[in-house]
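Replying to the earlier thread about multi-chain prediction with a worked example.

Input:
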Amino acid sequence: MAKISTRLMSVCAAAVTAVYAAGYIVTMPSAQANTSSMPDLGGTTPSQSTPSAAAKAFASHPPSAGSTNAVARHPHHARPKGGTGATGNSGAKAASASASASAKKPATTSRGTAAKMAKVKVAQYKDGVYTGVGSNPYGSLALSVAIRGGKIASVTINQYSMHYPQSVIDPQLPQEAVSMQTWRIYIVSGATASTYNFAEALYQALQKAKA
Amino acid sequence: MTSIRHFEQSRLLMGTLVSIEVVGPGSETKRRDAAACAFETMGLVEAACSRFDESSALRALCRRPGEWRQVPDVLFEAIRVAVEMSELTNGLFDPTVGATLVRHGFTRHYLTGEATGGLRTQEGATFRDIALDEASRSVYLAKPLLLDLGAVAKGLAIDLAAAALEGWEGFAINAGGDVYVHGVDRTGQAWQVRIQDPAAKDGVIASVQGGDMAVCTSGNYERRSPLDPGVHHLIRADTGQLANDLVSCTVIAPLAMLADVVSTAAYLLGAGRALGFVDDAELAALCVDDALAVTMNESMRGYLQ
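Result:
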């Protein structure tokens, strides 16, 4: 049997490479980062240039210890595999300007994944108004979603309780739901618990609306 | 102190809060778009590999035992890595643990709150009931079983997000404690990753520094069974018992997938064998046992500040 280290490293590296090659990396034509081609697999680039994760995968040994002369002042917390949104607080200080930005669907993907995603997003709903509720130990939320022409036309939060104000998620999340046409809400602005509630409530409402 | 231009955002993905920070020159829009692409990439992995989502490729596969099913590359590779680790640990680690997790109440989709179920599974299924065909990217499940790729898919998603962010001066991806960092932080210095003290919410037991490294922690103190608070989500597949003499195990590796799967396996192996296993994998590890004693291997000392 091959050494454990060799087996594990090669199977993981092969996995990342295969999925990469299959076009699962979402890229943008205008992006600064050039992700449209396979990374340099030589792995010989000096550390201050741009060695990629995938390139590193082929180094097949752990990186040496980080330089000791640098003193980082912006630490990231490594948290254990966390469960619910209620516990996910370390990264919660998201950029608040993000709601409108990500509402635009920026991604293009290679090899048909975009088409696949688009297909998933075209949900067929019956016109009407549907309600949903979401709750967790931190508070609750009720909303109604209006479906017009089979699409999410608007989302209104009817009831809200949380220790921070409704303005943290409203109107961002309702707007995002309309522009993205999905309950899969991504943006959190230090509002994990109510974002979970919003997503749960919207999902519930959309289940009722399913044609 | 000068600060390099950066953009940070968090989204709910893969059952946890994922934060991405992008550091580098150019317009705010470029940084924001780059982060959005990385998030979208992770979303593709989740869409294929989620145990909780009825529409995932994983659920579709598990609904059809007893026949060869072609699956998306991302699912195929995740299963292959999980099976490899199962073989290395003689089934201590096992992706067919899904049904056991369901019995302990780990059934709810993190966003919809909807219970997953309705899937017939058979007692006694193991990773040996999974067959893989490389050429056709097909999977065969010999028994009705429910896969759980939690330990693998999140790592794979992080590695792909890192690939999507290639070319930036620096970035950090933090998926609920599984972290990958590249290059420099917003102060222009090497990233510093802190390892949480399991006994104190805001305490830190160690700080590691480096670039192009993944730091993943498997622990029992964050995710508990809704049916029994004494039950956490890391269950030994071979015995169905909880692995309990370690509180957490943190592993550093060049890939998040590797760090994630090795930390999970090491945690399941328990205090007596965890560090030796990580040594065999030639990676760095730090363990906290149930008496809150911290142990680490030699490789880990090189990362400590």
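The first strand of chain B starts at residue 6 and ends at 13.

Feel free to reuse this layout for your own posts.
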